[in-house]
């Protein structure tokens, strides 16, 4: 399969549709049927305010009723199609709903992503640990065979980045919930991609790279893309996000702009990149049409 033919999506491109009442599960099925198999479930109000977000909230409440080992066993049983999930009678209805979603998701590869203040020391260490553990448990439930949790950095407490604390955070996050194996990743956001890459490597995490995030509105860069591509190794990458930025902001379809997608594609192809490729366009009321047009544009570049 050609590189750009295996594009997936980040689910925040569904924001407008979900706010208009479209169901997460229906959108997942539609995009999966069109070949967008990799989906990063992105945390946000659009998700939490939906019917699917309510289900996630119930799942998170249920986590507290089971040990870490019991949670892993439940997730594995659901994906193995077992009838006896080992849940309490009061949770039977909830996990029956989860099982219905899992049947839909079997043809997909779902990961989970959220914003998190990881670039400085936490104010409350235990609360910080518990937030990551809940996220890891959800990521494992979404795809036990290929679980992945990605975090993108919010401003740390006090607004000052502490590199040593950030690396320590990543190491600590990786150590949490050891019985549920998964990829742990961070994404370059406002900080230079080379800086985030260095923190990720020191902490033993992988990187999700979004080249559009390196561009300011006027087309200047936080750091030159060439500096990043000169520093990164393919084994340090788990995901590459695709969106286009111009002076008008992030576009609803990938097209011409600041980001040189042809150069990115050639680098990834030449280095035999094996991670996923995810579209993250600005949301509209026609995200599937936008995604298909974006895939066609990118495919023609190579």
| Count of separate DSSP helical elements | 12
Number of DSSP strand runs: 10
SSE string, helix = H, strand = E?
Answer: EHHEHHHHEHEHEHEHEEEHEH
Q: What is the first-to-last residue Cα distance?
A: 12 Å
Secondary-structure class: alpha/beta
Q: Helix proportion of residues, in percent?
A: 40-55%
CATH topology: TIM Barrel
CATH homologous superfamily label: Divalent-metal-dependent TIM barrel enzymes
Radius of gyration: 19 Å
Sheet with most strands: strand arrangement: 1-2-3-4-5-6-7-10
Query: pLDDT under 50 segments (min length 5)?
Result: none
Structure description:
There is one protein chain. The protein is α/β, with parallel strands linked by helices and 302 residues long. It has a single domain (3-43, 98-301), classed as Alpha-Beta Barrel (TIM Barrel), CATH 3.20.20. Helices cover 44% and strands 15% of the residues. The protein contains 12 helices and 10 strands. It has helices at residues 15-19, 24-33, 45-48, 51-63, 68-79, 92-105, 125-142, 163-175, 193-203, 225-231, 261-270, 287-301, and strands at 8-10, 38-42, 109-116, 148-153, 183-187, 206-210, 237-242, 245-246, 249-250, 276-279. Strands 1-2-3-4-5-6-7-10 form an 8-stranded parallel β-barrel. Strands 8-9 form a two-stranded antiparallel sheet. Helix 10 (225-231) links the parallel strand 6 (206-210) and strand 7. Helix 5 runs parallel beside helix 7. The radius of gyration is 19 Å and the shape is globular.
């Amino acid at each position: 399969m050609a590189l750009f033919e295996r594009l997936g999506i980040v689910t925040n491109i569904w924001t407008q549709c979900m706010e208009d009442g479209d169901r997460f599960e229906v959108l997942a099925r539609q995009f999966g049927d069109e070949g967008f198999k990799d989906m990063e479930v992105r945390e946000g109000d659009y998700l939490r305010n939906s019917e699917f977000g309510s289900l996630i909230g119930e799942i998170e409440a249920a986590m507290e009723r089971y040990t870490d080992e019991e949670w892993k066993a439940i997730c594995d049983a659901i994906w193995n199609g077992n009838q006896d999930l080992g849940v309490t009678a009061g949770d039977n209805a909830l996990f029956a709903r989860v099982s219905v979603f899992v049947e839909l998701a079997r043809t997909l590869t779902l990961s989970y992503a959220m914003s998190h203040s990881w670039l400085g020391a936490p104010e409350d260490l235990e609360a910080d640990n518990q937030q990551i553990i809940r996220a890891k448990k959800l990521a494992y439930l979404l795809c036990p065979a290929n679980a992945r949790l990605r975090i993108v950095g919010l401003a740390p407490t006090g607004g000052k980045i502490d590199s040593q604390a950030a690396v320590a955070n990543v190491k600590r996050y990786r150590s949490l919930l050891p019985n549920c194996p998964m990829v742990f990743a961070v994404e370059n956001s406002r900080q230079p991609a080379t800086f985030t890459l260095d923190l990720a490597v020191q902490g033993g995490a992988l990187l999700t790279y979004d080249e559009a995030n390196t561009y300011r509105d006027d087309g200047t860069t936080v750091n030159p893309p060439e500096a990043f591509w000169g520093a990164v190794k393919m084994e340090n990458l788990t995901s590459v996000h695709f969106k286009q930025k111009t002076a008008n902001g992030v576009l609803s379809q990938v097209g011409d702009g600041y980001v040189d997608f042809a150069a990115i594609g050639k680098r990834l192809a030449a280095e035999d990149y094996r991670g996923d490729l995810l579209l993250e366009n600005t949301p509209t009321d026609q995200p599937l049409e936008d995604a298909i047009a974006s895939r066609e544009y990118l495919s023609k570049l190579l």
